[in-house]
Specification:
The protein is α/β, with parallel strands linked by helices. The chain is about 45% helix and about 20% strand. The chain is built from 16 helices and 14 strands. It has helices spanning about 15-35, 55-65, 70-75, 90-95, 95-105, 120-130, 140-155, 170, 205-215, 235-255, 280-290, 305-310, 360-380, 380-400, 400-410, 415-419; strands at about 5-10, 40-45, 80-85, 110, 135-140, 160, 190-195, 220-230, 270-275, 290-295, 315-320, 335, 335-340, 355-360. The strands form three sheets. It has a six-stranded parallel beta sheet, sandwiched between helices. It has a six-stranded parallel beta sheet with strand order 9-8-7-10-11-12, with helices on both faces. Strands 13-14 form a two-stranded antiparallel sheet. α1 crosses α15 (about 400-410), α9 (about 205-215) packs across α13 and α13 (about 360-380) packs across α14.
């Protein structure tokens, strides 16, 4: 008998949820095809914003698995024998009419999501109950542990499975390289890259602060800050306003960082790149940088970290969060962090201060940055081996689409298998 799986997610936009969703979907499809399973896999793509991030191949793949009409949806769901997956934050899923419709008609419902603090929000539990969710998939052990503890507290027991995101050369498209028009990455400089949206959680200023403090007297160091703001308002004047605000914040911090003589501000360089860049240019930045830095206050997985490692660029990251499962502590640089209550000024009504994320230990960050620089400067052959070794370590976790697809399919259909 044919089994039916419907995967709903943010699959076409530039968000991390979309990248992760495309990887999960590709893994499930590859596994079903490889094992010649009698499974009808369908897709419903929900975009959180208007900007598409799809290649032509990705668009054709999604179109192949999508419904052609509402009539096809009605016929496909009529028997209520399908297994439904929604890949969203539960609060966002609650705003989507399709989620309510499919969850009410499905044989089982699986929530695929990710979170960035040490406790699941109580409102999420309320939504999971309302949707009668049967199981949860998260991308890291940290999420699995915190979700299980929260569900026990809420007296709402359900299985939670950790399945890492798909990250490998084929999925990232690492061979597609397009240099940027401006010269930013000098071969004579120690080039540090940080990437992320300008939010309290991503905390790109933590990287900027540690970098300026440690390399204030180094003229051979450059930091590229690749970021963007709120992209749901696409007006050019609003985007320019956000970019100027970020530049002003960096300039103000730079003026406050002084050496022991209190005589001058840092000599190291900073370049601000604002906006959404094509994958080929992001690949160029990841590949040509000497070190990728991210001191975000929490990562449910950390896609930019993983993308850097695919390009054999070592990373400097916190010692806690969702990325620790695939970041090799031997060949990367690990910075101490400490728990602190979560709060968010830029996107309010998201994080409760009764849950925690992590703050950077700047003394540790400076020490690790200096260690990376010294090896790059004085032991270049040893430094050059860090990236390939770190990539090999990561791919053992994230690189096998068939393994990831098998775990997802078997977990989603686990109730059928028991029957």
């Amino acid at each position: 008998m044919t089994k039916k799986i419907l995967y709903q997610g943010q699959l076409g936009d530039p968000s991390g949820y979309a990248v992760a969703g495309r990887g999960y979907l590709r893994s499930m499809y590859d596994y079903i095809q490889e094992k010649k399973l009698d499974i009808d896999l369908k897709v419903l793509s929900i975009n959180a914003d208007e900007q598409s991030a799809l290649t032509q191949e990705e668009a054709e793949f999604l179109n192949m698995l999508s419904f052609d009409s509402n009539e096809e949806i009605d016929a496909w769901t009529e028997a209520e024998d399908f297994h439904y997956i929604f890949h969203h934050p539960p609060v966002y899923a609650w705003k989507i009419d399709a989620t309510k419709f499919f969850a009410s008609k499905s044989a089982t419902t699986t929530c695929v999501t990710v979170w960035e603090t040490d406790a699941m929000p109580p409102v999420w539990n309320d939504i999971l109950k309302a949707f009668e969710v049967d199981r949860i998939v998260v991308p890291c052990q940290w999420n699995k542990d915190s979700f299980e503890a929260s569900l026990e507290k809420f007296d709402n027991s359900m299985p939670v499975k950790m399945v890492p995101h798909l990250i490998n050369d084929d999925f990232v498209g690492s061979a597609e390289i397009e240099p940027l028009p401006q010269e930013l990455l000098s071969p004579d400089h120690f080039n540090v890259l940080t990437v992320g949206q300008w939010t309290d959680r991503k905390a790109l200023m933590n990287v900027v602060k540690a970098y300026l403090m440690e390399f204030k007297d180094n003229e051979d160091c450059s930091l590229v800050v690749k970021t963007y703001g709120n992209i749901q308002d696409s007006r050019p004047e609003y985007q320019q306003q956000q970019q100027q605000m970020m530049a002003n914040e960096i300039t103000l911090l730079k003026r406050s960082i002084l050496n022991d003589s209190l005589s001058k501000t840092p000599s190291c360089k900073i370049h601000l790149l604002y906006g959404l860049f094509p994958k080929s240019q992001m690949n160029y930045l990841y590949r040509e940088s000497d070190l990728f830095a991210l001191f975000s206050r929490a990562e449910g997985f950390g896609l930019p970290i993983a993308e850097s490692l695919v390009h054999e660029t070592p990373v400097i990251v916190h010692d806690k969060g969702g990325h620790v499962g695939f970041v090799d502590p031997k060949n990367n640089y690990i910075v101490n962090s400490y728990l602190t209550p979560a709060h968010c000024k830029i996107f309010p009504f998201v994080y409760s201060c009764d849950s925690n994320w992590f703050e950077t230990d700047y003394i540790s960050a400076r020490k690790q940055l200096r260690s990376a620089y010294n090896e790059w400067k004085h032991e270049p052959e040893a430094y050059a081996q860090r990236g390939p070794n770190a990539k090999e370590y990561m791919l053992e976790v994230t690189g096998d689409s068939l393994k990831i697809g098998k775990e997802l399919v078997e977990f989603v259909l686990s109730e059928d298998e028991e029957d």
